[in-house]
Each structure stands twice: as C-alpha cells, then as structure tokens.
Amino acid sequence: MKRVFIDSDVILDLLLAREPHFIPAVRLFTLIEEKKLEGCVSSLIFANLYYLLRKAKMGPTAKAILQDLKLLLTILPVTERTIGQALASEFRDFEDAIQYVVARESGIKLLITRNKKDYARSEIEVCTSAEFLSTFEEHGR
Q1: Phi, psi at residue 39, to the nearest 5°?
Q2: Domains of the chain by start residue, with CATH
Q3: pTM metric for this prediction
Q4: Number of Cβ within a 10 Å radius of residue 16
Q5: pLDDT at 136 over 90
Q6: Under a CB-based contact definition with an 8 Å cutoff, are residues 107 and 76 in contact?
Q7: Alpha-carbon separation of residue 119 from 65, 116, 131 (angstroms)
Q8: What is the CB neighbour count within 10 angstroms for residue 74?
Q9: Degrees (nearest 5) of the Cα angle 54, 56, 66?
C-alpha cells in the first residue's frame, strides 16, 4: 500500500469543506478509508488542527473530529532529531520544515499539500490532492 504524507491544509479542506479543494480531499480520504492508501501525518498536525478547528467555531466538536481522524491516519512522531533537522533546513516556514523532515525520516516518498511552493526545496515528490488523484486513478496506484 502506498504511503503518503498529508499536510494540514488538505485535512482542513476536508473538515471545513473548503471549495474548490473539498472534493479532491474527500476522494483522497476515501482512498485512505478503503485502505487503498496509507495517509500519514505528524503529531504536530493534530495540535495545529485542534487550534484551527476551535478558531473556526468548532470547539466542542474539535476533539471528536480529531478522534475520528486518528482512526484513519498513521501519526508519526516529532522527535528531538526532527526539530534539529528542521531548524538546520533551508525551509522558510519552520512548521513546513518539521512536516517535511517527519515525512523524509519515515521513508515517505510523496507529500500531498495545497501549498507546493512551501516545499520548493523538497527532495521528495510534492503534489496537490488533485494532482495525486489524477495520477493514482490513471495508474491505479
């Protein structure tokens, strides 16, 4: 099963039904639910999602949403080594550096995000949900 790292913006597209990105996010998470794909995230993403869901007035249900999400995704750790490598990286955004290092350290070859420019220095493949789905559906993998 193909493992992909999913950035928080894609998860927020799903949870907040943000158009025009909602449908590709739904299709991506359907593949994960059907076990055709393993979706991975860092533990940091869960903290960020909780904060953003509360900000979006979803406070009382934020934890329940994250409980459900936790069942679908593989949560990868942020370690002291991760932080050190992220601090030493040339990424402008520290959070993006952490996500990238977690994905790379876990041997993941593909990062799915809506902000590809944030990963311009990436040594692993970076694409949007729509780009990934186009390739996945065309090749069946």
Answers
A1: -90, 125
A2: 2-139 (3.40.50.1010)
A3: 0.91
A4: 15
A5: no
A6: no
A7: 27, 5, 15
A8: 15
A9: 50
